[in-house]
Input
Amino acid sequence: MNCFDIVENYAKQFSEILAKDSEPVQFPEFPWKNQIWRSNKFRRAHVEEFVSPAISVLHVTVFPHLDDPSPIYGFDVVTGAKKPAGGYIDMSPSVETWNRWRSWIPFDVPPNKAIPEWGTCFSDEFVAIPLRDSAHLEELLKYGVSMLSEYLNRIQQNKVAQEQVVERQLYYCQQQRNNQKTMQILERMIGLERANLFMNEVLFPDPIAAPSTLRVG
Output
């Protein structure tokens, strides 16, 4: 089993967890796999699977409802077929910040490199880790799935005014959309107009706007 197969297997696990008791949201089609759901548990969850002959990318985000102060779940891995590149995970702060979750990772995590300017939406425990081999990749994916289940069990414990959550989730989305590396890759693949559509309406849409192209399926 190569790294692509490992990522595909865990992408199915992420999707199964998020699809349970959820309803899918339809959106413009792109040349790679995306799934979006909403449920009584969360406002929005997205699993993106991009695969080319050279690289596989898995991206997962979960946004709480706008009266839920819980953090935003984010998980990404990037790998070649034979050797993984890196993994990223965070419980990005909203009104609430969850501490000490990084200590639950079942392997040593080296100190992070400097976070880029747009990454100020991440928590102090944000993990960016180079992956040694396929076993290390699978360890991180297994942790990501486990942490997602724990996250879904912990959210919706408290309620706050929506304005507070909107402000924090909006900041997160705006900062993520400032990631010029992602934007440049998308633009090369699908052109500027479609890249903007994907960034603004599929990856990181504003929490206060319901884009006209999105509808419940």
